[in-house]
């Protein structure tokens, strides 16, 4: 059977999107999702064009095991995946939960940084490497699609990281993932780690190099995109940037950025259907009970809103003046113009035209003066406020 990763990687510039909303995202929620909710989200992710769906951590609970099994049974085009520590019982639980699918991935991981190996795992580096190699070999008994992650790679000694990646690939890992587990690195530094691996690991071309960035310093998207520029070909991310602490890299941000700036990043593209972003984001927000922040890039309520008069005037003349992507491309209804004291006459006039009041049917100078007084008092002025102003002006004229 042709390995799907090798198939994708042989297409130049194809960046795989590995979604972990149901695993890394879900583990940070205050209330777990039900198996049905997880399935609903998984099917939406598949429809969005996600390549790999990390459906859960089967050893962690019976509920998670069942959800992973249910999702693996239903996916048709996306590859189902489960997480396992580098221990046989976790890998066996993954294999059991996923074997209902024709093709599936087992994702096994172990920490590689000094702080984690010494303080958390209390093992020597040689012991860690032996566990990683044994885990990858064990997972290969279940599937030819095995991903290995070096947890806290962002803070791992470079020589040890190269050694671990080489060993994991030799043991049979087809994807090697480099997590910035605590969101510690800055883009040039993280990109440097990826280019070091590309240059120093002799068998790196035998696996897909993946990245998994957390957002503790707000760098997750920048780090992931810099990694792609340096040769990474899988990004791990969550819808709406959900995840531990400040969250994981946000799926919609990397998908939109690669769509718009893929040429700048080395002629790359993803399989994400951009016009499904709005509805997937809304579904995840509703099911997880985690509202999308208003100013969140790409999917926030304000992401396509224009408030200042200068911006509104520009957008009314040509949307590209202040919109690098259109909301319609992402599946939203359209942009939003906030009428405030910063709005100009052009905005007021075009709103009234859209409401059915043609230019010349009212005195724009008078109306605009009243509009500014109202906006100063009220903040945001709505369509119905403008209509009320027109009505009061017509009464004054009648007097
Ligand atoms: O952040 C992390 O390191 C992880 C691993 C399990 C991939 O989530
Ligand atoms: Zn993570």
TrEMBL record:
<feature type="binding site">
    <location>
        <position position="212"/>
    </location>
    <ligand>
        <name>Mn(2+)</name>
    </ligand>
</feature>
<dbReference type="GO" id="GO:0003985">
    <property type="term" value="F:acetyl-CoA C-acetyltransferase activity"/>
</dbReference>
<keyword id="KW-0100">Branched-chain amino acid biosynthesis</keyword>
<feature type="binding site">
    <location>
        <position position="24"/>
    </location>
    <ligand>
        <name>Mn(2+)</name>
    </ligand>
</feature>
<comment type="pathway">
    <text>Amino-acid biosynthesis; L-leucine biosynthesis; L-leucine from 3-methyl-2-oxobutanoate: step 1/4.</text>
</comment>
<dbReference type="GO" id="GO:0030145">
    <property type="term" value="F:manganese ion binding"/>
</dbReference>
<protein>
    <recommendedName>
        <fullName>2-isopropylmalate synthase</fullName>
        <ecNumber>2.3.3.13</ecNumber>
    </recommendedName>
</protein>
<comment type="subunit">
    <text>Homodimer.</text>
</comment>
<keyword id="KW-0808">Transferase</keyword>
<dbReference type="GO" id="GO:0009098">
    <property type="term" value="P:L-leucine biosynthetic process"/>
</dbReference>
<comment type="similarity">
    <text>Belongs to the alpha-IPM synthase/homocitrate synthase family. LeuA type 1 subfamily.</text>
</comment>
<feature type="binding site">
    <location>
        <position position="214"/>
    </location>
    <ligand>
        <name>Mn(2+)</name>
    </ligand>
</feature>
<keyword id="KW-0963">Cytoplasm</keyword>
<keyword id="KW-0479">Metal-binding</keyword>
<dbReference type="GO" id="GO:0005829">
    <property type="term" value="C:cytosol"/>
</dbReference>
<keyword id="KW-0432">Leucine biosynthesis</keyword>
<dbReference type="GO" id="GO:0003852">
    <property type="term" value="F:2-isopropylmalate synthase activity"/>
</dbReference>
<feature type="binding site">
    <location>
        <position position="248"/>
    </location>
    <ligand>
        <name>Mn(2+)</name>
    </ligand>
</feature>
<feature type="domain" description="Pyruvate carboxyltransferase">
    <location>
        <begin position="15"/>
        <end position="278"/>
    </location>
</feature>
<keyword id="KW-0028">Amino-acid biosynthesis</keyword>
<comment type="function">
    <text>Catalyzes the condensation of the acetyl group of acetyl-CoA with 3-methyl-2-oxobutanoate (2-ketoisovalerate) to form 3-carboxy-3-hydroxy-4-methylpentanoate (2-isopropylmalate).</text>
</comment>
<keyword id="KW-0464">Manganese</keyword>
């Amino acid at each position: 059977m042709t390995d799907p990763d090798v198939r994708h990687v042989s297409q130049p510039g194809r960046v795989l999107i590995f979604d972990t909303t149901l695993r890394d995202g879900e583990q940070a929620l205050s209330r777990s999702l039900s198996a049905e909710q997880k399935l609903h989200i998984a099917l939406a992710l598949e429809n969005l064009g996600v390549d790999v769906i990390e459906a859960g951590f089967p050893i962690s609970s019976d509920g998670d095991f069942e959800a992973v099994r249910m999702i693996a049974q239903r996916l048709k085009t996306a590859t189902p995946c489960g997480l396992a520590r580098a221990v046989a019982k976790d890998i066996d639980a993954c294999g059991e939960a996923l074997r209902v699918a024709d093709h599936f991935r087992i994702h096994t991981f172990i920490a590689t940084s000094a702080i984690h190996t010494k303080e958390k795992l209390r093992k020597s580096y040689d012991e860690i490497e032996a566990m990683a190699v044994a885990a990858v070999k064990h997972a290969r008994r279940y599937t030819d699609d095995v991903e290995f992650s070096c947890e806290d790679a962002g803070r791992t000694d470079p020589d040890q990281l190269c050694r671990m990646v080489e060993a994991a690939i030799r043991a049979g890992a087809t994807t090697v993932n480099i997590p910035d587990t605590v969101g510690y690195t800055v883009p040039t530094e993280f990109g440097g780690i990826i280019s070091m691996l590309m240059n120093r690991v002799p068998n790196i071309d035998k696996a897909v190099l993946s990245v998994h960035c957390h957002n503790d310093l707000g760098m997750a998207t920048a780090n992931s995109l810099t990694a792609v520029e340096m040769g990474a070909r899988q990004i791990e991310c969550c819808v709406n940037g959900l995840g531990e602490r400040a969250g994981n890299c946000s799926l919609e941000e990397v998908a939109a950025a690669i769509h718009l700036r893929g040429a700048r990043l080395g002629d790359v593209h993803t399989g994400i259907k951009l016009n499904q972003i709005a509805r997937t984001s809304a579904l995840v927000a509703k099911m997880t009970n985690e509202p999308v922040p208003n100013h969140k890039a790409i999917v926030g309520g304000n992401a396509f809103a224009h408030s200042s008069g200068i911006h509104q005037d520009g957008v009314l003349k040509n949307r590209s003046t202040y919109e690098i992507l259109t909301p319609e491309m992402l599946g939203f209804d359209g942009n939003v113009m906030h009428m405030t004291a910063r709005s100009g006459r052009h905005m007021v006039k075009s709103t009234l035209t859209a409401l059915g009041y043609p230019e010349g049917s009212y005195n724009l100078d008078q109306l605009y003066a009243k509009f500014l007084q109202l906006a100063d008092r009220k903040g945001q002025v709505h369509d119905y406020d403008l209509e009320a102003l027109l009505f009061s002006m017509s009464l004054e004229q009648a007097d």
